[in-house]
Amino acid sequence: MLWKHPKEVGKNWFTHLLGAWKMALIFQIGVFRCLIHGLIPDFDLKSGTNTANKALGIVPEDVD
């Protein structure tokens, strides 16, 4: 079934879409921050850790 996953995580299609796009935006910003950190190591020392924690904070623990 095409729309099974959103129902399994307690969302409708639209709220699932918004959540997925929010996570994508978090990762895109994180990529930029990590690229800058790679070039300037003393800038944004926790860019990777902060991005991972922010992404994990919006995903329920029981979702596989």
Keywords:
64 residues; mainly alpha
Question: What is this structure's SSE topology?
Answer:
Layout: H1 4-8, H2 13-39, H3 47-57
Helix pairs in contact: 2-3
Provide a descriptive summary of the structure in words.
The chain has 64 residues and is mainly alpha-helical. The protein has a domain at 27-59. The chain has three helices and no strands. The protein has helices at 4-8, 13-39, 47-57. Helix 2 (13-39) runs antiparallel to helix 3 (47-57). The longest helix has 27 residues, at 13-39. 0% of the residues are buried.
Oligomer description: single chain
The span between the termini is 17 Å
Number of helices: 3
Helix content: 55-70%
Main sheet makeup: none
Task: Report low-confidence residues grouped into runs of 5 or more.
Answer: none
Element order: H for helix, E for strand: HHH
The Rg value, from CA coordinates, equals: 15 Å
Mean pLDDT: 86
**Structure classification:** mainly alpha
Q: Give the overall shape, derived from the CA principal axes.
A: elongated
The total beta strand count reads 0
- Report strand %: under 5%
Task: Describe, in short, the structure shown.
With 64 residues, the chain is mainly α.
